[in-house]
Design a protein that fits this description.
With 115 residues, the protein is α+β, with helices and mostly antiparallel strands. It has a domain of 78 residues. Helix content is 26%, strand content 27%. The chain contains two helices and five strands, in the order αβββαββ. Strands 1, 2, 3, 4 and 5 form a five-stranded antiparallel sheet that branches. The longest helix has 17 residues. The chain is flat. The termini are far apart.
Length: 115
C-alpha cells in the first residue's frame, strides 16, 4: 500500500505544469516561461500567458514591454518534451528609442563556423 501511495505522489508531481515566473537574464532583460503538464495541449495558450505575465511585470514598474525573442518547444511532445513557450523581454521607458521598433531576431537552428 505504501508503494502505491509513493508512486501516486511521484506521478502527481511529475504531471504538474511549470511556470518560471519573471527571471532576470541581464541588465534590464528578463525571461518568463510556461510548460504544459502533458503533451496534449498546444503552446499558443502558454505563450499568451507568458506575454501577459511579462506585460504585467513591466506595467508594475511603470515601464513598457518590448519582446526581444520567443521560443517554443518542437513536437513530438513525448517523454517530457511537453509544449513550452518562453518569452525574453525588456521593460523600457515610454520615450526610449528602442521601444519604437521591435528587435525580434530569429534564432538559427544551425550555426556554421569557418575557422
Amino acid at each position: 500500500m505504501k508503494k502505491v501511495l509513493t508512486l501516486g505522489m511521484v506521478l502527481l508531481l511529475t504531471g504538474c505544469a511549470t511556470n518560471s515566473g519573471v527571471v532576470p537574464i541581464g541588465q534590464n532583460s528578463y525571461m518568463v516561461s510556461r510548460q504544459a503538464a502533458t503533451g496534449f495541449s498546444g503552446s499558443g495558450k502558454l505563450k499568451a500567458e507568458a506575454f501577459q505575465e511579462a506585460s504585467e511585470f513591466c506595467t508594475k514598474i511603470s515601464k513598457y514591454l518590448q519582446v526581444v525573442n520567443t521560443e517554443e518547444a518542437k513536437p513530438p511532445f513525448i517523454l517530457g518534451n511537453y509544449p513550452k513557450a518562453e518569452v525574453q523581454f525588456r521593460c523600457l521607458d515610454k520615450n526610449d528609442p528602442e521601444l519604437s521598433r521591435p528587435t525580434l531576431k530569429p534564432v538559427p537552428n544551425v550555426v556554421i563556423e569557418n575557422k
